[in-house]
Amino acid sequence: MHTDPLTATFAALADPTRRAILARLAQGEATVNELAAPFEMALPSVSRHLKVLEQAGLIEQSRQAQWRPRRLQAAPLKDAVQWLESYRPFWESSFDRMGEYLDALQSQETRK
């Protein structure tokens, strides 16, 4: 299945295990065994999560002797953040209207 990069990024981020793996890799490279340690799942299951993250371009595998550690590739996250940021004016406007409404309610209570 062919998906655009942003869809692949959000699909990869939709799973909490994959988000936890990314959080771990933000601290530095790790092997599959190191990445699997905090989870109660078999290594093949962790490998499937890693494959999704690799296909989304969020991690890459390197090679050090017999080890193949993974490392975070944060560039796709930047695209996701930029997409989410496009909605910031909507949310800020909503919060401003809510603040004005709460101020109006508080003024009415003060006058009573």
What is the approximate shape? elongated
Low-confidence stretches: none
Describe the strand arrangement of the main beta sheet, using strand numbers: 1-2
How would you sum up the major sheet? 2 strands, antiparallel
Distance between the termini: 63 Å
Q: Give the amount of beta strand, in percent.
A: 5-15%
Q: Give me the Rg, rounded.
A: 21 Å
Question: Can you characterise this structure?
Answer:
The chain has 6 helices and 2 strands; from the N terminus they run H-H-H-H-E-E-H-H. It has 112 residues and is mainly α. It is elongated.
What's a concise summary of this model?
This protein is mainly α and 112 residues long. The protein has helices at residues 5-13, 16-25, 32-36, 43-55, 75-85, 88-111, and strands at 59-61, 70-72. Helix 1 runs antiparallel to helix 4 (43-55) and helix 1 (5-13) packs across helix 5 (75-85).
